[in-house]
Design goal:
The protein is mostly beta strands and 236 residues long. It has no helices and 22 strands.
Length: 236
């Protein structure tokens, strides 16, 4: 088993006033040659957007982009004609492919919005751009690691062009279980949204990240009430 630990306080940080962002991996002006990616997981940004502010229209290509709101309402517009609002309990995915433009704004004028911005390197280049957004409230299960993303449009959750499976766990104190890897040559990146957990013997607190590879099953214990994001991705 191979592991890598990224404590919350070691992340890159940029505060632009309207945007307060923590970067688990190298992004924009934050660069650490030891923290460029974990397999196909390229970006994991923990973003807080001030009331009424946001990202103006900007381009992307050849990247799978996943947004998971944690608080507030985020309004999305793109060059494919999609206009939508994503909220906590939902997940949004874009395959940028041959190229898209999009913008994201905090729709609220009286409170900030918090969301995770995740980029996954695709296994296919120059695909037709695609957008999808679903509620994950209906598939959420307490004390269970439930799937929210996969490589297949026929599977539970949203899908992307990569061997990747994302799960969420909303866990009670004392819960124990394990995560069994689904893919070949994949690793798992754990990111603690709330509480404290122990993964493969490593204690993790809020916003800590922990990558595990070269194994087939990983033991998990919730040391308190906890919310855990699990991202299994291709390593090569």
């Amino acid at each position: 088993m191979k592991t890598i630990l990224h404590k919350a306080e070691t992340r890159g940080h940029a505060n632009h006033g309207w945007l307060d962002s923590h970067h688990t991996f190298s992004f924009a002006d934050y660069y650490d040659p030891q923290r460029v990616h974990f397999g196909a997981l390229r970006v994991l940004n923990d973003d807080r957007v001030a009331a009424g502010k946001g990202f103006g229209q900007h381009p992307h290509d050849n990247m799978e982009i996943v947004s998971i709101p944690l608080f507030g309402d985020l309004e999305h517009k793109d060059s494919m004609g999609n206009v939508a609002v994503i909220r906590k309990g939902e997940i949004q995915v874009m395959s940028a492919g041959t190229g898209i433009f999009h913008s994201e704004y905090n729709r609220n004028t009286d409170m900030e919005t918090q969301f995770l911005q995740i980029w996954v390197i695709p296994n296919k280049r120059n695909v037709t751009p695609r957008y999808d957004q679903i509620s994950i409230t209906d598939i959420a299960k307490e004390d269970e690691l439930y799937q929210i993303l996969s490589p297949s449009p026929d599977d539970q959750g949203v899908w992307i062009h990569q061997q990747a499976w994302f799960h969420l766990g909303e866990l009670s104190e004392g819960w124990t279980g394990s995560y069994k890897l689904k893919g070949e040559d994949t690793g798992v990146y754990f990111f603690v949204l709330e509480g404290e957990v122990t993964v493969a013997g490593q204690k993790l607190s809020k916003r800590d990240g922990f990558g595990v590879s070269e194994t087939s099953e990983i033991e998990i214990t919730a040391n308190s009430e906890a919310q855990l994001l699990i991202m299994e991705v291709a390593m090569h």
